[in-house]
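Discrete fold record:
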Amino acid sequence: GDMAPRESDADFAKHVGADFRLSWWHDLAWRVAAPLLEGLIFLVSLVASPVLRIFHLFDKHMPAAPSPLVRTIKLPAHGMTDVLTIGAPSDKLTFVMIPGNPGVVEFYEEYMQTVHDELGGRVQCIAIGHLGHSKRSGDHGTSRAYNLQDQIEHKVVAIRHLLSDSTPLVLAGHSVGAHICLEVARKLPQDRVTRIIGLCPTVHHIGRTPNGRKFYPILKHMRGPFSRLAGLLASAPPDWLAHIARSKLGEPQAWALAGAFALAHGNVARNIMTMAFHEMHEIAALDKEHLEALGARVLMYFVEGDRWATTGHADLFEAHAPGCRIVRGTGVEHAFVLKSSRHVGQLTAAWLRQ
């Protein structure tokens, strides 16, 4: 619960490093720069948008179609939700994947297909996208931005809506998805969650990671400018967006291209950054009591060189949650879905078979 013993800030600082909050003058500089940048992007978009519309006329490239495995469903009181499903329903076990941030389910298709195939096709695999993290999901008709608590509550509602109350679950989460899995487990019957697997897990003090300190000022002050910039990109011809995606992802498979297209929306950028800002403040000390209650059902997979979930985080997690299992890996990036989906999927299936 909320009064559970937690590791101290001093204990954490010794392992990892300084706090992420800005000095007053740094904060002031960012606060002044943000509206100036947003105004500049607005002026550029006034000129660029009509020009981009002309280019659309000559662009024969169609936007990447969503994966046939993805459907968008309406959840009571939570708007539209992207769900990727592989395999037939099973009353024996369901593997539920909670994405990182951004939470676009297409990026997890190869990983989940690997888990499903490695387990002999006996387990249904479902990924639940984050609200507002694709053009299809959430409610882009409003100015609503979904925070971390909204996303946690949404996953509980989605699981209850999609699956029967008696189905045993494996909850797997990538990055912030691992934190969400731990929080979702509080709200479900304890005997229902058979395993929790965290992949490159940001489960404590994310703001004190190298990337947390680097990106915090942007997340705090630049949501407006970045939303405008994403809105401008979204109005570009599909061929241009495909070219941008390829420059970042190499020669992406269809699922990666579809995921990249799903991200291209001003409100999507705002939701991604709003959630990340809340992660910095809300993912802090470990709840040792909760982890002790879950015990050996929890497995956390940390990778060397991860700047969102560092070796120091792994060390401290191991010290404060001795009943949980830690696996340390190498040669895998934090965004494992881009290059290591099959490898991590094979690892996941092996852990589940143990």
Q: What stands out?
A: The first strand starts at residue 70 and ends at 75. The two ends are 30 Å apart (CA to CA). Residues 134 and 215 are 22 Å apart (CA to CA).
